[in-house]
Amino acid sequence: QAQLVESGGGLVQPGGSLRLSCAASGISLDNYIVGWLRQAPGKEREEVSCVDSSYGSTFYGDSVTGRFTISRDNAKNMVYLQMNSLKPEDTAVYYCATAPEFYSALHCGTVSHYEYDNWGQGTQVTVSS
User: pLDDT class for 79, splitting at 50, 70, 90?
Assistant: First the structure.
């Protein structure tokens, strides 16, 4: 059974950095579009970043462009999200998710957050002084 497990969240001061990790079991992540999404209290779920399966290209939401970097390590079956210059508004639960395998030929930026069908349990990121 496919399972995604996030780690790396925590409390960080504004301007600081965190690196989130997404470990997969039961599936090979290189066959899937993988996204990082977040949800803050009282707000809708937001797609932060994603990485293609077929093309290797990436997508970033406007609020994180230039600060966050997504990457894959196919040998370890993991995806990472490096978050720099963190802001209080980045505070949220961050989820790793995969889109259906038949989406693998698409560019991930075309996939909406509600189309991801396999989710991890989430990891809390809190940016506060």
Answer: very high
